[in-house]
Specification:
The protein is built from 18 helices and 18 strands. By secondary structure, the chain is of the alpha/beta class. The protein has two domains: 149 residues, HUPs (Rossmann fold, 3-Layer(aba) Sandwich); 324 residues, 3-Layer(aba) Sandwich (UDP-N-acetylmuramoyl-L-alanine:D-glutamate ligase), CATH 3.40.1190. The strands form three sheets. Strands 10-9-6-13-14-15-16-17-18 form a nine-stranded mixed beta sheet, with helices on both faces. Helix 16 runs antiparallel to helix 17. The chain is globular.
């Protein structure tokens, strides 16, 4: 019986015509459904009660974007599992990355999503496109109110680091999951300004062929490329999922500016302000990787990282002098590629109500782009090698160094990210929260620090208890390392799901 439920979209659409002639309402749900669990079942049962016929469409294997080893179950098995449910009338596998095309064919009366999206002011771009398609077809979007679980979190529960469990057990005695989620909801009202270099991250996938017979080199076959909007653009996109109004102030090059690409890859609620350097390209980091293992072979940087021309810096600082006081929170993502001089750092620090800063050490600026460049900051988020460079101290306890930075810059808090050893958040009076790594699952580390900064900065500004900040940041980092580069942002719905899984 379940096999007859799995049909093509066209065949299902034909069957729906007869149902509509008798006044029946069509309900449509869509997803990956990799590991069908009780949350899915309750969601689908609730959706079926909204109408008379329930059609479920399933994302095909090639469009499942959930990290290495996913989907855990191939598309035909996922479809058969859904078809075995009594509440499901028809199932189709869709060969597109979203449900937009399926919505156009099925024209459902109701397109139903889970409660994690209910009331959201800014939906993920893919879901927004689906919502638009439903309304264009004359239907409506509805939400179920069933408990939310996560296939991704459940599949990875075996990978949750054992050492984080004592922290979670202790955390639950002081804070409920509802406390954390309500605090995250409060961030929506914040007005945020993000400042820093825009970076185009190119991932060029290759396959090594072997040593050249005439040269001492490995010959590599080029396969494909993908580009991501990185740097401060990625930071703005992360924070824009949690805060209603975001402005991005960044620099682009007059040569190979990629301006259209950057604009197209910003969330709708991010307003960009560009300062164009006419004699330089927009910073592009071209990485060459061994596909499919994401082993980075080498990188080529296309950029002019000398200081901004004086007239362009004057123009940017004049703009910021007026803009900075208007924002509740200013996030500076300083990659040390010429946009932000010590003069700019001082000007920003002097005019900002709440300043969150990261200064990054990388191959182009190692040892020359230190957090001490900023005379004042409200929150610093930095990795352990960067804080050791800044304090010129190889061996002292990282918490002691964070306290020294906090006192020097007048910070409310300092977060130190430590890769596989988790993250440390330090506050006033020697308070420290050491969160071990949440999950050992890893696809790509690149961009995880930006996600941690962007998600925790509004949390600190809003007065969230620093123990919560430490956990939220670690969960954001765990999500970010499951994404290739900056292919997608940390979505509030994904963050909430993983928090629920960890704290229930």
């Amino acid at each position: 019986m379940s096999e007859t439920k799995v049909q093509t979209l066209a065949a299902i659409a034909s069957r729906l015509e007869a149902a509509r002639r008798t006044g029946q309402k069509v309900v449509h749900c869509h997803g990956c459904f990799d590991l069908l669990h009780i949350g899915h079942i309750k969601h689908l049962q609730a959706a079926r009660r909204m109408g008379d016929v329930l059609v479920v469409t399933v994302t095909s294997d090639r469009h499942v974007n959930k990290g290495a080893g996913r989907p855990a179950f191939p598309e035909h098995l996922r479809a058969e599992a859904l078809a075995a449910l009594d509440c499901v009338d028809f199932v189709a596998i869709v060969q597109t990355p979203t449900a937009v095309e399926a919505i156009g064919v099925l024209e459902p009366d109701y397109y139903v999503k889970g409660q994690e999206f209910a009331g959201a002011r800014h939906l993920p771009p893919r879901l927004q496109a689906e919502v638009d398609a439903v309304r264009q077809a004359g239907g409506d979007v509805r939400f179920t109110r069933e408990p939310v679980y996560s296939s991704t979190a459940l599949l990875k529960s075996h990978a949750v680091a054992e050492e984080v469990r004592p922290f979670l057990d202790s955390f639950r005695t002081r804070h409920s999951v509802d406390d954390v989620l309500s605090r995250l909801d409060e961030l929506q009202t914040l007005q945020v300004l993000v400042i820093g270099e825009a970076i185009i991250d190119e991932y060029n996938y290759c396959s090594p062929l072997g040593k050249s017979p005439k040269e001492a080199i490995v010959t590599t076959k080029y396969l494909r490329q993908e580009r991501h909007a990185g740097g401060a653009v990625a930071c703005a996109n992360h924070v824009a999922g949690f805060c209603r109004e975001v402005e991005l102030v960044t620099g682009l090059g007059g040569q190979d500016s990629h301006e259209t690409f950057v604009r197209e890859h910003l969330r709708p609620n991010v307003r960009p302000t560009f300062f164009i350097r006419p004699d330089a390209p927009t910073i592009t980091k071209r990485r060459y990787l061994w596909d499919p293992f994401l082993v980075k072979m080498f990188e080529v940087a296309l950029m002019d990282d000398s200081p901004l021309p004086a007239d362009l810096e004057d123009e940017m600082l004049a703009y910021l002098d007026d803009a900075l006081p208007r924002y509740d929170l200013v996030i500076v993502a300083d990659y040390g590629h010429g946009l932000l001089s010590p003069r700019a750092a001082s000007a920003i620090a002097s005019r900002t109500r709440f300043l969150a800063v990261n200064t990054q050490a990388n191959a182009a600026n190692f040892g020359f782009n230190l957090i001490t460049k900023y005379p004042r900051a409200s929150y610093v988020c930095i990795d352990e090698p960067e804080i050791r460079l800044a304090m010129q101290d190889r061996s002292s306890d990282a918490g002691d160094l964070a306290d020294a930075v906090r006192e020097r810059l007048g910070c409310a808090a300092v977060s130190v990210t430590r890769g596989g050893r988790g993250a440390l958040t330090c506050g006033a009076g020697g308070a420290r929260w050491d969160v071990p790594v949440v999950s050992r699952a890893l696809v790509d580390r690149m961009g995880a620090g930006d996600a941690y900064l962007a998600v925790t900065a509004p949390c600190v500004q809003s007065g969230m208890p620093l123990e919560m900040v430490a956990l939220v940041g670690s969960v954001a980092g765990a999500i970010a390392v499951q994404v290739v580069g900056n292919r997608s942002s940390v979505e509030p719905a994904d963050l909430r799901k993983l928090l629920v899984t960890l704290l229930q």
